[in-house]
Each structure stands twice: as structure tokens, then as C-alpha cells.
Amino acid sequence: MPMKTRATALNPHNRFQPIVTDREVDPDWYNDPEDDLNPDTLATEVIEETARSIISRNTSPDVPFDQSINPYRGCEHACIYCFARPTHAYWDMSPGLDFETRLIAKPNAAAQLREELDKPGYRVSPIALGVNTDAYQPLERDQKITRQVLEVLAEYRHPVSIITKGALILRDLDLLAEMASEGLCSVRISLTSLSNDLKRRMEPRTAAPATRLKMIRQLSAAGIPTGIILGPVIPFINDHEIESILEASADAGATRASWIMLRLPHELDELFQDWLHRHFPQRAEHVMNRMRDLRGGKSYDATFGRRMTGTGPYSDLIRQRFTKKARRLGLNLHEEEPLRKDLFRRPGGEQMPLW
């Protein structure tokens, strides 16, 4: 019996634990809706962390940003494929059910951001918001940390790009539109499927596909440069939807699109394969065989330049299909206008040198 609001019933030990302390869910009891340990009803625990720094620096050559902010660790969206799941192991928690139910919030994020932007040596570069875990996950409704961070960025006139699948972004439409009018903001909506059934299985606590298209429509109408990230592409699960997702997104007002192949680092391999055998048992081996074809015989290859798309005939086919359809729809026709860095000013009017 599939779970409705959690993607996984597994809580495997993390790779840093010397002793296995699994909190794996027994299939005989996770079907019981009255059980307090049922993943569907397991309460979300929020742990507050006082961040000593908030801007993370990136040196990966295949990621299009060098600064990011993640207001939360863990994500209640519970996407089974999330590449960030293994990062929960750094906090001595499981990338499985813990990642979905034991979340870390950084309530001092905005204050810490202000402190870092005020440092004399700070150099302006667009900040990517919510790239590891979604900044607009359900927790944000009460915490409002993302909103506070955006208010600081707007005050400093600092460029920001956002990746999300959370409808709560529309709450901040006023602020985002104001920033976009000065060339300070862009948004990418993550869209994996147009199927409500697949969405419920794969991303149980995310906005419905129709809602995400509405998000694109409203963001675009407000003058905010909006695109999509189509992914992850999963062989034999959602790869047949590439053209329809691109078409629906373009119709909604998206002007740019990119794609990414499924990645299965560390503990995510076990979690995804468990999910795959529960939801698509007849396709499971086909999916994993194709994944190994993409990754040189392994479930995952972390090599820069290959990890995002894989290699080989299947990867080439996906790229060709995506590029052909995107071109026909007028997506990615021109170079994206870079977000402005020259407007940055500290409160009080001090303009920041760009180099």
C-alpha cells in the first residue's frame, strides 16, 4: 500500500555511523493509519540552528552559481529522488525518513546575511536561494525565514535567483516583482511530471503540476523572468513527458528551460530503489539497468561534466528531444540577461565596488 504523504518508509543509517541503527518501517505497521509511527502521520520535528555563516560558496564547474543560501536543512516536500538527502548524514540523521520529518531551520539567517553583506571584503555575485532544499517548503509558511532573507536582499539591492516547486513563492510576489523590475531576480520552477498520480508517489508534499503551471503564469505575468528545470528525468518513469512538460511550461509563460538526469549519490541509491520496487516493480530492473548505462556501469558517477546528464546514447537522445522541442517552442532562444550587480548598496547609500 503506497504511502500518501511520505516518500519513503526507510530510515537507513547514514554513511558516517559505525553502527547500524536503522529505524526502518515495518510494512505490516506502516499500513496502519492509527499507528503513531506511521510515516503518513509522523509529526515533523523542527530543530532551530543558529547559523554562524549563511552564504555558501560553490566551486563546482557544472553549477551556474557561486553563492547560495539554504534557510532549511531537510525538506518536508519529501521528494524521493532529492540529491540533498545524503547531506542529512552530516548532522547524524538519516537521509531517509529523518530527511522528511526532522528539519533544521535557521531563524537568524536574515540577520547573519546582513552581517556578511556588510563585511568590507564582500563582493557581489547573484545568490541562489533554496538550491539544496526548497526555500518554499511547507515549513516556510510559519517560519518566514525565506521572506526575511529576501527582504534583506531587496534592501541591499542584491541579485538573487530562486529554484522552487513550492506554491508559497506566490506569497512573495510583490517583493520578487519589485526586485525583477530592477533586474535583480529570476525564478526557476522545478517540474517533473504533469501526472498527479506520479507526483503523489514521487513528490508527496509538493504543489500539484497544475499549481506549478499557475505559479509560472503568475510569476511571468508579474514581469519576473521565469523558467523551468525539467527533472530529474527518470528512464521509463517520466521521460515520455519531456515534450508535454515543455509545451505546458511555455504556454504558461516560461521563457527558459533546462533538464537534469536522476542522480543517486550515497544513501539515495538504496532509498530510490526501495521506492522503485514498491511503486513500479515491473519496471524497476529496466530503470536501474538504464541508469547504469548512463553512469558507466554504476548507479552514480559524480564526475563534473557527467553527473548532471550522464553519458551515452540515452543521454544523447534526451538532450536531442529536449533541445528540439525547446527550440520549436521559443525557449532558450537568446542568452539570458545576467542579473545586475551594479545596483548593490548597503543601507545608508554606500555603493559596493564590483571588483
UniProtKB/TrEMBL annotation:
Coiled coil: none annotated. Residues 61-298 form the Radical SAM core domain. GO terms for molecular function: catalytic activity; iron-sulfur cluster binding; metal ion binding. Keywords: Iron, Iron-sulfur, Metal-binding. PROSITE patterns: RADICAL_SAM. Gene3D superfamilies: 3.80.30.30. PANTHER family: SLR0285 PROTEIN. This is Radical SAM protein.
